[in-house]
Amino acid sequence: MYAQMVDTGLKQVAEATGMSPEESAFQARVDADVKVEPKDWMPEAYRRTLVRQIQQHAHSEIVGMLPEGNWVTRAPSLKRKAILMAKIQDEGGHGLYLYSAAETLGVSRDNLIDDLHAGRSKYSSIFNYPTLNWADIGAIGWLVDGAAIMNQIPLCRCSYGPYARAMVRICKEESFHQRQGFDIMLAMCRGTPEQKAMAQDSLDRWWWPSLMMFGPSDAESVHSAQSMRWKIKLLSNDELRQRFVDQTVPQAEFLGLRVPDPELRWNDERGHYDVGTIDWKEFQDVLRGHGPCNRDRIRTRTKAWEDGEWVREAAVAHARKRAERAARAAA
Ligand code: FAQ
After folding, report:
1. Using a 6 Å cutoff on CB, does residue 115 contact ligand 1?
2. Is 132 helix (H, G, I), strand (E, B) or coil?
3. Coil, helix or strand for 4?
4. Residue identifier of the C-alpha nearest atom 39 of ligand 1
5. What is the CA(57)–ligand 1 centre distance, in A?
6. How far apart are CA 143 and CA 207, in angstroms?
7. What DSSP letter does each residue of 245-297 carry, written as one string?
8. How far apart are CA 146 and CA 179, in angstroms?
9. Average pLDDT of the residues of the chain
10. N or C: which end of the chain has fewer CB within 10 A?
């Protein structure tokens, strides 16, 4: 149903009875919360699953810079511009930590980037939606970074050491990003009626795509069961989505905004909000490349990569010169 571009070789969750001695020892260490490090033995499917997830995550950070980059020159004040630029730079940094974490699994960054440009690997569906006005920058910080934090805080405890450690700093920065988005929304909701209407319109457009960020429902999620067994994922897609809704609805109420879901209501018995049905067809369409901005995002990333070739060449030449100088000094 949801194309699996990277075949991990696994069709069902590995059960203890069918495991080799190495696999059993590996699973026991994971169960005991011992971190897996790059030089440790690991099942090939574990390695591939991590590469798949970490590379998608890295691509999301880098592609995620584009919808916001569009607004750097149009931010309403110097202060907002400086804050937005800092946020976008953080996202570039997150991409770099994540590509580095993926490289510890024996893949090269150049190949990962090739996969992105050729459409062989995914990035988060959310970044295929356009930012039409300044309120959208608030909504991205509040909702998209809010959803990212919800998903990523548990990843700080995931089983693979380099990924878990990269996530610690990323989550701290995401939390600043979420606050800056909420602050933009608050300023707009306390502004003129037109500004408040812009904030509402933005929530209307970003709410459902934000819920889709958590991935298909647990019943449809192909990777969740095995990833949870390996502690690559600690909570399921639906659990995280529910936590996000429970946290965000009161924030929308504080802003005086209406969540665009007529079926949304607090369920006393469950102690959670009930939500309406997500439009999974829209999600699948975006994953298949038919979202509003898919083509534009890949075109822009590819052009940036090609235009940056001379910078990469210059950096390599500089590194070579330094190494030669150091070798001469040591001789
Ligand atoms: N978009 O079996 P599952 C951010 C794919 S970072 C696109 O449930 P899994 C920071 C999935 O890959 C946001 N594809 O998969 C920021 C799989 O396809 P595959 C990104 C999606 O891996 C903020 C298929 O569907 N965060 O926002 C999506 O167990 C603001 C089946 O799904 C991360 O990547 C989707 N939404 O669970 C930057 C966090 N959902 O690979 C700038 C780490 C699912 O077989 C501005 N990733 N798919 O071809 C994860 O936690 C997981 O990978 C999930 C998906 C939860 C995304």
Report:
1. no
2. coil
3. coil
4. 57
5. 7
6. 7
7. HHHHHHHHHHHT---S-TT-EEETTTTEEE-----HHHHHHIIIIISSSHHHH
8. 9
9. 95
10. C
2: Cβ below 6 Å to ligand 1?
Answer: yes
Kindly list the distances between the CA atom of residue 162 and the CA atoms of 8, 106, 155, 219, 307, in Å, as whole numbers in the listed order. 20, 13, 11, 30, 31
- Ligand 1 lined by 186 (C-beta under 6 Å): no
Separation CA 27–CA 310 (nearest Å): 46
Rounded to the nearest angstrom, the distance between the alpha carbon of 3 and the centre of ligand 1 is: 13
Ligand 1: centre distance to CA 68 (Å): 20
- Percent of the chain having pLDDT more than 70? 95
Average pLDDT of 216-220? 96
Model pLDDT, residue 2: 34
Q: Which residue's alpha carbon is nearest to atom 14 within ligand 1?
A: 124
User: What's the pLDDT tens digit per position in 33-89?
Assistant: 999 999 999 999 999 999 999 999 999 999 999 999 989 999 999 999 999 999 999
Q: What is the mean pLDDT of residues 19-25?
A: 92
User: Which atom of ligand 1 is closest in space to residue 5's alpha carbon?
Assistant: 49
